[in-house]
Amino acid sequence: MFGPWxxxxxxxxxxxxxxxLRVAKLAGGGVDAQxxxxxxxxxxxxxxxxxxxxxxxxxxxLNVINRFREQVAANEERLSTERLAASGQVRAMA
Length: 94
Description:
- This protein is mainly alpha-helical.
- It has helices at 4-27, 30-56, 61-87.
């Protein structure tokens, strides 16, 4: 309905949250920061390969953008949960 520009705008907004969470984690240093840095680089490489493969197989730019949004949402969930767990705010689910 809105075309790819709306999805690109949402991707940019959603990505900024993940960037903030990652910067905070990296700023903390230590083993967790090192793991996050390695994970971040490997995710970027995987995303480039996946996007290229999708485009070669006939996917539209909108399909690729929406897949990126799924990946960003997963990262935001993981990083938010880790941050809450580190601060002791996560409760066991019943």
